[in-house]
């Protein structure tokens, strides 16, 4: 699904040759500041490599229709921003901003259930806890039905159990819906437990 060849981004990341397969779960491991988030951002062209070639579905990512790319490759960042207002408004705004209409098969209540939120869609999103906000952000991503989900490690403000619960939900979602999942984690245990393939990034280099 992605092929990277001789990719360089500033002095932060240097990738010689790597392929990420469709419908697989790939975990990106490595120590803090090593370039993991930078790697994810290259995959939806949020940032552009200074050198080298990144191919997505056989086409150079820079030539791929940017609107399609934004819809197909969606990133769940470390600290997703929750919009002010209700949960329902969060879903509606997501649809409005991305130009996506909710899939006929998905409704907002089902989405909340999928991420184990027991709130009502008319409840305020501001009062949710950190873990609940992360799950709402995940539900917003599910609403978009991306082909590829880029999951950055949830911020350290989440406890281990909540973090693993969220990762479990994302993995289940990806498997049930045949999606490609690429996730950053600091935890070798999580990587081993969930991933088909593990990539280790240290100081901007892939070491394993
Ligand atoms: N656009 C940028 N310009 C300059 N430096 C940057 C840019 N983006 C990230 N960096 C720096 O590059 C390094 C790698 O950042 P990155 O966020 O990719 O690391 P990471 O492995 O995801 O770290 P963490 O595990 O702490 O989230 C850091 O030192 C960061 O400060």
UniProtKB/TrEMBL annotation:
Keyword annotations for this protein? ATP-binding, Nucleotide-binding, Transport
Q: Which Pfam families match?
A: ABC_tran
Return the protein name: ABC transporter related
Listed InterPro entries: AAA+_ATPase (IPR003593), ABC_transporter-like_ATP-bd (IPR003439), ABC_transporter-like_CS (IPR017871), P-loop_NTPase (IPR027417)
Which organism's genome codes for this protein? Halanaerobium saccharolyticum subsp. saccharolyticum DSM 6643
Lineage, opening ranks: Bacteria, Bacillati, Bacillota, Clostridia, Halanaerobiales
Quote one Gene Ontology molecular function term: ATP binding
Q: Please state every residue range assigned to the domain named ABC transporter.
A: 2-207
């Amino acid at each position: 699904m992605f092929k990277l060849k001789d990719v360089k981004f500033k002095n932060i990341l240097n990738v010689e040759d790597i392929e990420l397969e469709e419908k697989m779960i790939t975990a990106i491991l490595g120590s803090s500041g090593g370039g993991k988030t930078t790697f994810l951002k290259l995959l939806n062209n949020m940032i552009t490599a200074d050198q080298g070639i990144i191919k997505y579905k056989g086409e150079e990512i820079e030539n791929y229709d940017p609107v399609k790319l934004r819809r197909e490759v969606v990133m769940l960042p470390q600290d997703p921003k929750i919009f002010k207002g209700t949960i329902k408004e969060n879903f509606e705004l997501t649809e409005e901003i991305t130009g996506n209409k909710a899939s006929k098969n998905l409704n907002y209540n089902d989405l909340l259930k999928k991420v184990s939120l027991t709130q009502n869609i008319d409840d305020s999103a501001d009062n949710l806890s950190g873990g609940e906000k992360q799950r709402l952000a995940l539900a917003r991503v599910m609403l978009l039905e991306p082909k590829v989900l880029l999951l950055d490690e949830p911020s350290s403000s989440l406890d281990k159990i909540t973090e693993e619960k969220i990762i479990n939900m994302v993995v289940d979602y990806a498997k049930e819906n045949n999606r490609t999942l690429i996730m950053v984690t600091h935890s070798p245990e999580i990587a081993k437990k969930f991933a088909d393939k593990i990539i280790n990034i240290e100081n901007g280099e892939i070491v394993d």
